[in-house]
Write a structure and sequence with these properties.
Layout: H1 2-50, H2 60-72, H3 88-94, H4 100-113, H5 115-131, H6 135-147, H7 152-172, H8 178-183, H9 191-201, H10 206-228, H11 233-242, H12 244-256, H13 267-275
Helix pairs in contact: 3-13, 4-5, 4-10, 4-11, 5-6, 5-9, 5-10, 5-12, 7-9, 9-10, 10-11, 10-12
């Protein structure tokens, strides 16, 4: 009998120990899971609060380039761009442009297949010539660009703006070697070539300089159209927004193009700039 009691007690003890062990293991498992959840939650909260990885700040050269491009190609920069319409004034009188939609289509053609693309190529080639210190190439680009303008009034427009841009750059934004570079052109400097020369002399990369130039060019065209049709400010901004892709694609084409790729397929726009001279009433000089 005592032996049976001893065995029973031992069995009970073993059962109690097993139950205790199971309980302890369950508690340990629960603690581990809770710790993992808390740790994971803290990491998630830390990651979310930190946000995306920080990007490197702009360098001094990049901020200077942005500042100068925004200044030089702003409507406030005194090159007299508000005085010219690139033939849009005659186009409105002729009825080719009557609203925001027709203005957008006309400017998209001028930009992609007309003077916008050609001006972009000349800017890119002038920039590269200055960057490479190739005086002969720069002189050839400047001469070709001046000869490529299709009408007397467009010639007046682009050479007057080019001369004003150069003069103001030398007076307020001069840099080492700029006067010598300009002297190599030995003749009239059209507006896109002037922007290419000054941008390269200030070590501003070609791509942002070209994008900024084309944006300013389109903005000036829209400004002329908005006064002639007329358009409200909201419709003008809609046209500018709609031309964003065209500006980007034209800049990419102009950067990749060579002088042999120059050409225009906007004959009526050229005709508009020719006929503007004989309009009975005019608000613009071209």
């Amino acid at each position: 009998m005592p032996r049976q009691r001893m065995i029973t007690r031992m069995s009970i003890t073993v059962m109690i120990m097993r139950m205790a062990t199971t309980t302890i293991m369950a508690m340990i498992t629960t603690i581990m899971i809770t710790t993992t959840v808390i740790t994971g939650t803290r990491m998630l909260m830390t990651t979310n609060s930190a946000g995306p990885p920080a990007r490197a700040a702009m360098t001094d050269a990049e901020t200077a380039a942005l500042y100068r491009l925004m200044t030089w190609l702003s409507p406030a920069f005194p090159v007299g761009g508000f005085s010219y319409s690139s033939g849009i004034e005659w186009t409105v009188e002729a009825g080719d442009i009557v609203d925001a939609s027709s203005l957008k289509e006309w400017l998209a053609a001028m930009l992609s297949d007309g003077s916008g693309f050609c001006d972009g190529v000349f800017l890119a080639q002038a920039h590269r010539a200055v960057a490479a210190d190739d005086d002969r190439a720069l002189r050839e680009v400047a001469e070709l660009a001046a000869a490529f303008v299709p009408s007397r009034e467009r010639q007046l427009e682009t050479t007057t703006q080019g001369r004003a841009f150069i003069e103001i750059a030398r007076a307020a934004w001069d840099c080492d070697g700029l006067s010598q570079i300009i002297a190599q052109c030995d003749g009239a400097i059209v507006y896109p070539v002037a922007v290419g020369i000054v941008s390269a002399a200030h070590a501003i990369p070609l791509e942002p300089a070209l994008h900024a130039f084309l944006h300013a060019l389109v903005s000036n065209w829209i400004s002329a159209g908005s006064r002639l049709i007329p358009l409200g400010q909201t419709d003008s901004q809609r046209v500018l927004a709609a031309l964003e892709q065209s500006v980007s694609e034209t800049a990419k084409r102009a950067i990749a193009a060579k002088l042999d790729d120059l050409g225009s397929a906007t004959f009526r726009a050229d005709l508009a700039s020719l006929r503007h001279e004989t309009q009975y009433t005019r608000l613009f000089r071209s």
